[in-house]
Design goal:
By secondary structure, the protein is an alpha/beta fold. It has one domain: Aldolase class I (TIM Barrel, Alpha-Beta Barrel). Helices cover 29% and strands 22% of the residues. Strands 3-4-7-8-11-12-17-18 form an 8-stranded parallel beta barrel, surrounded by 7 helices. It has a 4-stranded antiparallel sheet with strand order 5-6-16-13, with no helix packed on it. Strand 17, helix 6 and strand 18 form a beta-alpha-beta unit. The longest helix is centred in the last third of the chain and has 15 residues. It is globular. The two termini are 33 Å apart. The mean pLDDT is 94.
């Protein structure tokens, strides 16, 4: 059953439904020699911006019970360095490359979509959790209208599949998902990190230099799973599920909830072979259940009596 994990995500042909979450796998090169890339459906590279960013100052990561806080601040070399130096190297992996794009104003997203359109990457993931500096630094993704506006602008500038990454820090994630679907999104991915913080009781100071940061890891899985299920009920486009996935059982849960593909994030920091172990576990699960394709799991949760 070597082909049982093949997945088509909004036109992206992947060997498996297993992706890696942006910011947890670098540009892929960092995992050479550790991860068997033949089990990887797509690499979502670390968040990309128009200009280079140094990221936040002070402490930027902290462990929490069953999770991790981070406030990296989108440290990256900028899109031009990515295109000229990094992309030619990682294209040799023969694995779809998805670029996570970020901006402070709508024009940033438009620029990135345009310059990446003919670059040879396979898709764009639009991070709408970024602060909209024209509207009081409120994230683009917390209001349906601004989420839709960014999505529509990106779609105008590219022929690549557009995956919109949704923030969980909203009242109704299904409402946001429907708004970006109506604006032309080809898929949605969720969840991005929850907002959290930690305090050092010896110094009485915040642990993170930025005071608050994004919470990820197994602690967020129940929230992520619920939001994926809600979103899958609300939209017709594919859903990529993420948030605390570290085992094949986790992946199966997300797919039953409606995810067509899944992304591994924080688990990569603990075990660089997580994607390989999940792929092996999925193959074994499908064989045990006598299923020929992983897509037969998608949305098959039994909620009735």
């Amino acid at each position: 059953m070597s082909s049982c994990l093949q997945t088509d995500l909004a036109g992206i042909r992947m060997r498996t439904p297993i992706m890696v979450a942006s910011g947890t796998f670098g540009f892929g090169e960092e995992f050479f020699g550790f991860t068997d890339f033949t089990d990887l459906g797509a690499i979502v590279v670390k968040g990309m911006t128009r200009e280079p960013r140094r990221g936040n100052s002070g402490r930027r990561m902290a462990e929490t019970p069953s999770g991790m806080l981070n406030c990296i601040g989108l440290q990256n070399p900028g899109v031009e360095v990515f295109l000229q130096e990094i992309l030619p190297r990682i294209k040799q992996l023969d694995t779809p490359i998805i670029v996570n794009i970020n901006g402070n104003v709508q024009e940033d997203y438009a620029y990135l979509a345009e310059v990446l359109n003919e670059s040879g990457v396979d898709a764009l993931e639009v991070n709408i959790s970024c602060p909209n500096t024209r509207h009081g630094c409120m994230a683009f993704g917390v209001i349906p209208e601004t989420a839709a506006a960014v999505t529509a602008e990106v779609k105008k500038r590219t022929r690549l599949p557009v995956i919109v990454k949704l923030s969980p820090n909203v009242t109704d994630i299904a409402e946001i998902a429907k708004a970006v679907e109506a604006a032309g999104a080809d898929a949605v991915s969720l969840i991005n990190t929850l907002v959290g913080m930690a305090i050092d009781i010896q110094t009485w100071q915040p642990v993170l230099g930025n005071v608050v940061g994004g919470l990820s890891g197994p602690a967020v899985k129940p929230v992520a799973l619920r939001m994926v299920w809600q979103t899958a009920q609300a939209v017709k486009i594919p859903v990529v599920g993420m948030g605390g996935i570290s085992t094949a059982d986790d992946a199966v849960e997300f797919m039953l909830a409606g995810a067509s593909a899944i992304a591994v994030g924080t688990a990569n920091f603990i075990n660089p072979r997580t994607v390989n172990e999940i792929a092996a576990g999925l193959r074994a699960y499908l064989a045990q259940r006598e299923l020929s394709q992983v897509g037969e799991l998608v949305g098959k949760i039994r909620t009735g009596v």
